[in-house]
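Hi, here's the filled form for the chain we discussed.

Project: internal
Contact: R.S.
Residues: 119
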Amino acid sequence: MDKTDAIAALAALAQDTRLDVFRLLVQAGADGMSAGHIGERLGLPSATLSFHLNQLRHAGLVTFRRESRSLIYAAEYEAMNSLLAYLTANCCQGDPGACGVGACDTTAIVKHKGRSTRQ
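And the returned structure, exactly as it came back:
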């Protein structure tokens, strides 16, 4: 992830509703969740939800697929983990082990079934 992508992702997540949507999708897992279900869970009108989902999609944080008449949205875990790695790349002056808590250890990010996940 480069600086421009990180800025776009952070800007998208800096809004309360979008952060709530993204957190819900992260919790939903790889199967994702229909737009209607997201709206119900968060109490959002469809036009408002559509706007926020598009912002997250343009930032590369969510993907969607069509299933019959529904749009299913899912968190883009690789982008999320790339953002975390970008933010922690220079943690503890470039030595993640120096922190002593493992919070900055980006080596724990591994590929799993085509997605990046934390071990």
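Let me know if anything looks off before we file it.
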